[in-house]
Design brief:
single chain, 101 residues, 3 helices, 8 strands, globular
């Protein structure tokens, strides 16, 4: 199963180790060092031109930066939703349903 991680990028949901919030996770020096090491080693994939809100760690030790929030990504991973979520005029998220037969 694949999950949309932003800007038309898909990744296999079963390869995801964790989804981390950039604001809270990067307060620790060890996380900053980890992300710097990933960039230096060519293991960092940037999927946004905006300020990233989250990063995704996969089983192959790759790190993907995303403009999507951790809650959006976690919801997509757990539901297997391939499509981007859109907000209606009330600010609520609409999640498209994927029917399996």
């Amino acid at each position: 199963m694949y999950v949309h991680t932003g800007n038309g990028r898909l990744m296999r949901a079963e390869t995801v180790v964790g989804v981390f919030d950039m604001d809270t996770a990067t307060t620790e020096a060890v996380t900053k060092d980890f992300l710097s090491s990933a960039q230096r080693d060519g293991r960092l994939i940037v999927t946004t031109y905006e300020l990233p809100k989250s990063f995704i760690l996969t089983v192959d030790d790759m790190v993907t930066l995303s403009q999507l929030s951790t809650s959006s990504l976690a919801g997509r991973i757990s539901s297997g939703d391939l499509t981007p979520q859109t907000a209606d005029n009330t600010g609520r998220k609409e999640i498209s349903e994927n029917k399996s037969t």
